[in-house]
Amino acid sequence: IEFELLDLVIRAQGGDRDAFGELARQFTPTVFSIALRRLRNRAEADELTQDVFIQAMRKLPQLREPERFAGWLRRITVRMAIN
Question: What is the pTM of this model?
Answer without folding.
Answer: 0.94
